[in-house]
Design a protein that fits this description.
Blueprint (H helix, E strand, L loop, with lengths): L1 H12 L2 H8 L8 H25 L6 H22 L13 H24 L5 H17 L19 H13 L4 H26 L2 H12 L2 H6 L6 H21 L2 H17 L4 H16 L5 H26 L16 H4 L1 H4 L1 H4 L2 H18 L5 H20 L11 H18 L5 H22 L4 H6 L5 H10 L5
Length: 485
């Protein structure tokens, strides 16, 4: 058991020297935490991508056949980092208010603990986690290979990208059995990594205050708490999408090829996680090309970004095209979409999903659109955030508004926009009211933290009744009772 957990944690942290070395080649200050967040995303992405290639080549899945090439591809970056490693000089930054930073850390710890507890305590029970992700992982663990793309043999879902399913398969291999608790840890950690990604996106676009506020807004959004431990691919995909936006902005500001490379690899990993990101690949490319037109991103950087995204994502989709003659499976129930006024205003018409944060998101969208129309030359931050979110929202509204869960794909980027404008709104409030209003917001935040932690844990009554129940008892509960709202 301990070795299995160590094998999973190794995948998350082993790329750290490589990512730290890569980020040194960007003009932005190097952050150990950003290097670690990036390592987690690239680690799981590289591991499952290698498993895809091995499956396509007919190499049976075994622990040694997966970890050995994984270590080999990380070895050059590790050696380069070791040879050039020097302590990073401290970069002076405008400090965030201590109260805001403390509150942000507290909320992250409490919400993350609740989410992780729910993921590690209960086996799979959400519909798609059981019927698609875990089912496909079971098949690949049993056969030690990829699912054949014979649509008459299985279902359209076998054409889904496989990052989450192969990560489950890896945990089964290192555990020696189909351990749902260890398997759920991987997408849950990637979901929680969204909090780190939005911090750095907010900090890089605005300042550290906006970074912490973005973290608070995402952590306190009910939709996030309910789905972070589900074992679904939605938030892991959103994590990669947020990284793509972060490094696209860094490329816009610095024209550094390394930032363009990481942005391209991130959007490619998003496509390797869930094919619902494919329209957003176009939005990402539109911003990159806009940077080329505005002479902010060089042609070389654009080409490198596109090659990186293609190298990561193309193998899976080419396999789909060649073997199944499709790019995306017809699994969206577009006939059930409801493109009406209530869904345009979804952020305020469904407070059970977005709470009071939905109002701030809606206000920030309106103000940012006004800013782009009136001062587009100085609205590059708004252009980035709106390009990555507003067209995506339109796709959701027209084609997939039957399920608000899909808003998770771009919610992390939206809360960064809300954080930026939230700080602007705060600055317009007379300083006379800052103290009293600040304490009121702290009380609301603490209350919301308790609420989000509560809804992040399902079957609470059963846990209180028998906290030390065995695996069979847990399966009996999740198979007979619906999850709590």
């Amino acid at each position: 058991m301990i070795l299995a957990w160590a094998a999973v944690l190794f995948v998350f942290v082993a790329p750290y020297p490589t990512t730290a070395w890569l980020l040194k080649h960007s003009p932005f200050p190097v952050s150990k935490w950003l290097s670690l967040i990036l390592a987690a995303g690239l680690g799981i992405g590289a591991l499952t991508w290698l498993m895809l290639l091995e499956g396509m080549l007919g190499i049976p899945f075994e622990v040694w056949s997966i970890l050995l090439p994984y270590i080999l591809i990380l070895l050059p970056g590790t050696l380069l980092w070791w040879r050039t490693h020097t302590p990073n000089p401290l970069t002076p930054v405008e400090p965030a208010p201590k109260r805001l930073a403390f509150l942000g850390r507290l909320v992250v710890i409490v919400v993350s603990a609740a989410v992780l507890f729910n993921a590690l305590y209960w086996p799979f029970y959400k519909d798609d986690a059981v019927g698609i992700y875990a089912d496909q992982a079971h098949f690949m663990y049993s056969t030690r290979g990829l699912i054949p793309l014979d649509l008459t043999f299985y279902s359209y879902y076998q054409a889904y990208p496989m990052l989450v399913q192969l990560s489950y398969t890896y945990t089964y291999l290192v555990s020696g059995w189909e351990d749902p608790y260890l398997a759920k840890a991987i997408p849950t950690l990637l979901s929680l990594a969204c909090l780190g990604a939005v911090f750095y996106l907010g900090k890089t676009l605005y300042d550290e205050k906006a970074g912490w506020l973005a973290v608070l807004l995402l952590a306190l959004t009910p939709l996030f708490g309910r789905w972070a431990s589900s074992g679904y691919a939605d938030l892991p995909m959103a994590f990669y999408y947020t990284l793509a936006a972060l490094f696209a902005w860094r490329a816009w500001k610095s024209n550094a090829t390394i930032d363009a490379l990481i942005s391209g690899a991130s959007i490619g990993l998003g496509a390797w996680t869930k094919n619902a990101i494919l329209p957003a690949v176009g939005f990402w490319l539109a911003f990159i090309l806009f940077g080329l037109v505005c002479k902010r991103i060089s042609l070389k950087a654009v080409v490198i970004a596109c090659i990186a995204s293609a190298v990561v994502a193309a193998p899976w989709y080419l396999r789909n095209l060649i073997e199944a003659h499709l790019l995306m499976p017809a699994t969206a129930w577009t006939d059930q979409a409801a493109p009406n006024l209530a869904n345009i205003l979804v952020f305020i018409t469904h407070p059970e999903n977005f709470g009071f944060i939905g109002w701030l998101i809606l206000i920030s969208i309106v103000f940012s659109l006004v800013q782009v129309v009136r001062h587009w030359r100085s609205a590059d931050r708004e252009i980035l955030l709106l390009t990555f979110t507003l067209p995506y929202f339109t796709f959701w509204w027209i084609l997939a508004s039957y399920d608000r869960r899909f808003i998770l794909y771009f919610l992390p980027i939206l809360v960064v926009l809300a954080a930026g404008y939230g700080i602007k709104l705060w600055q317009r409030i007379p300083r006379l009211y800052h103290r009293s209003l600040g304490w009121l917001l702290i009380i609301i935040t603490l209350g919301m933290t308790v609420y989000i932690a509560s809804i992040s844990i399902d079957f609470k009554n059963e846990i209180l009744h028998n906290p030390l129940m065995n695996d069979a008892a847990k399966h009996a509960i999740v198979s007979t009772k619906p999850a709590e709202p």
